[in-house]
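In response to the reviewer comment on reproducibility (Comment 2.3), we provide here a single inverse folding case reported in full, input and output, so that an independent group could reproduce the run without further information from us. The structure tokens appear first.
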């Protein structure tokens, strides 16, 4: 059984909209012994601020935030958790991610998913928001992205995207590629068939809450059945502060096959609890 690693994944809006402060928090997380510091990727998010009705929240660009995190830290893994790849051009993402991987000496992890909620991330900007259409764009985007990472002239012809001998240099530090973790709502099948092809999975409960250890075990078993081996593969479990190191719940997640526990403090008070140990 691989030892469990511990990560923090914060929104890119609300309390965390200031990139300089996010970089300082990442450095504190590294000092506190965390293994990863990640940020969400929302382009438009409606939520609640104290004393007011629901409204668009102030936000930062996640690529800029990730650059600041990379430069403020030396050890932790970092990345978007997760990037809605269907609303991005994968050749631009290829250039951004390789640059981040190189500036951090190979510490980037790319988390990807369809993006949620679809009406905020896509529909509000006139982009198609159907699950099926976004899934096609995600799969083609991953194919384009990894071909560009590989170096040499890359060609691809899909339903939505194409490459014609495109070549991007330099390549990433990490080989054979920057690790890709795929998010998906559990229970489900298509997101986890996709995740089995890549390097990690981040299941999210369809109820809107965190996956239980039993749900994480079911995800792991499904992935293992499709891959045949879990060697080098990451299973990321979303966790609350009740699953801190040494707790009964932390052990249950580890027994279920989780290789990472990911804490997502929506507000600063919970984050301060995590950083305090």
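Designed residues, in position order:
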């Amino acid at each position: 059984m691989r030892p469990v690693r511990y990560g923090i994944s914060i929104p890119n809006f609300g309390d965390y909209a200031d990139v300089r402060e996010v970089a300082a928090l990442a450095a504190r997380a590294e000092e506190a012994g965390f293994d990863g510091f990640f940020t969400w990727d929302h382009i438009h998010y409606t939520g609640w601020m104290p004393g007011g009705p629901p409204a668009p929240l102030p936000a930062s660009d996640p690529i800029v935030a990730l650059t600041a995190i990379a430069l403020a830290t030396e050890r932790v893994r970092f990345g978007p958790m997760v990037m809605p790849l269907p609303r991005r051009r994968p050749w631009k993402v290829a250039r951004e991610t390789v640059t981040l991987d190189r500036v951090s000496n190979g510490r980037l992890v790319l988390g990807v998913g369809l993006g949620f909620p679809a009406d905020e991330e896509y529909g509000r900007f006139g982009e198609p928001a159907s699950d099926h259409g976004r899934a096609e764009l995600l799969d083609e985007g991953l194919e384009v992205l990894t071909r560009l990472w590989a170096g040499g002239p890359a060609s691809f012809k899909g339903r939505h995207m194409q490459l014609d001998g495109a070549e991007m240099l330099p390549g990433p530090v990490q080989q054979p590629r920057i690790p890709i973790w795929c998010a998906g709502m559990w229970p489900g099948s298509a997101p986890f068939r996709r995740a089995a092809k890549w390097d990690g999975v981040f299941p999210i409960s369809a109820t809107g809450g965190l996956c239980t250890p039993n749900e994480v075990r079911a995800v792991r078993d499904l992935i293992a059945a499709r891959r045949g081996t879990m060697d080098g593969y990451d299973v990321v479990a979303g966790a609350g502060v009740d699953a801190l190191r040494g707790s009964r719940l932390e052990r249950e997640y580890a027994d279920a096959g989780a290789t990472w526990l990911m804490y997502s403090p929506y507000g600063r008070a919970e984050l301060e609890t995590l950083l305090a140990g």
